[in-house]
Amino acid sequence: MFSHRLMKLVLLAFTLLLLQGIITPIANPVMAAAAPAFKTNLYGQAIVYSKDKTVELANGIPFISLDLLASAIGLSYTVPKGQDQTLTLKYLDTTYTATLGSKTVAYAGPNNRKGTATLAAAVYKSKATSRYMFPARMASSIFGLEYSWSAQSKVLGIGHPASPGSSAADAMKIKQLTDQNNALADQVNALQSEVSSLKSDKAKLESELEMQTEADYSKAVDGWITYETTHLVIHITPKADVKFHYLVTDAEKMLDAHESYFGANTLKGDKVDLWIHDNSGFFQVAASGRYLPWMDALTMNVEDAYKLAGDDSVRFLFAHEMAHAYQYHKWDIDKLGSKLSGQFAWLLEGQADYVAKKLSGYTQYGIDTDAPGAQRDLAYYKTEMSRRSSPSGWTPMNWSDIKTFTDLNGYPGFYFGFEAMVYFFDTNYGRDKYLMLYNNLEKGQTAAEAFKNTFGKTQEALMTEYKAYFGIDKY
Ligand SMILES: [Zn+2]
């Protein structure tokens, strides 16, 4: 069955080849002079075509030459000699006897098997080729061959109807098919493995997606979005970026006062790292904001700042901390504090607040108690000084004990007094002089020397002026 199916396939293939013009059909039954040049395929099937000239048509019936038939299926034969008209053919275990001009073929085989078969046309000897010609269909039926004939295309096909697995040809074909099958099986296995792997990936991604969906965004540790401006590399958490993006867009504008007060190029081309974050997760333990001079970085918990007085407080925080960045770039703070026992908060915090509140115009606590910009005039400073530090104020100070500005350092939280000092010198002595005080301190001068060298007056004299200026001496 296997071979028969294959045979049909081969015949079909043969037809296809024919249609494609690869095989030339017998155009005109002719007589071949050359030796047969048949071809057999894998199944022993002889493919006959015109140039072999081993096929002839007689009265519309295809005849195949005995020598081609012999070569195609391996029968042996003897041809008539002299007056003898008898052809003897031996195929497998059967002997066939045919007579030229006769349609009858006698056969004899083992087990006393014998008989006659009648051909559709008599066997003859070709006058053109001297080949002995058998009617092809009858030859195939007598010898048990597969046979096909197309009257239209004049193509003859004939060959062994090989038994499954009985021939080397079939064994070879089976092996080929088995190999193909194994190769296909391997491919299927590979594909199944790939599918399995993809399924596993899919499951993993779905699992991850599910986890992401279920994650509480407010508790997630955010990544950072990074922006770069002229003076800053700004890292901001996505959550903070939603509400506080103006810090990114306005950052350079908010540094105008710093550039003006400390001087352009104070940062010397350095870009300060600004880390702006919300107040979720880990950031709950990173309150407010600060400048880290050793890293030239600034952190801002914007949600904390926002709680005070909204966006103004956020902008204030930025301006205040950035003022520290400018201070640390403008002066060597360690040297500046070397003769101050490391106590320089009164110098740094007052100036930072002055730049952020008075010059930049941001309020930290709201405009009612913490007026911004131009509203921060002498009257305001006097009123607030009294409200905060007079005997009837929030935190009364023993002003009589304070003889110098360095004495203010005994009240490290008194930022307002520090800021008022900057206002006092800025207004009465000029900005350049006040900045020179820092330069002199940086040079290693003591506070007494620095004040004297800068303003031409003793610290004590200047503190007396300070108290009178803000009305403290009236308390
Ligand atoms: Zn500060």
TrEMBL record:
Keywords: Coiled coil. It comes from Cohnella yongneupensis. Pfam families: Cu_amine_oxidN1. Residues 57-155 form the Copper amine oxidase-like N-terminal domain. Gene3D superfamilies: 1.20.5.170. InterPro entries: Cu_amine_oxidase-like_N. Residues 174-215 form a coiled coil. This is Stalk domain-containing protein. SUPFAM superfamilies: Metalloproteases ('zincins'), catalytic domain.
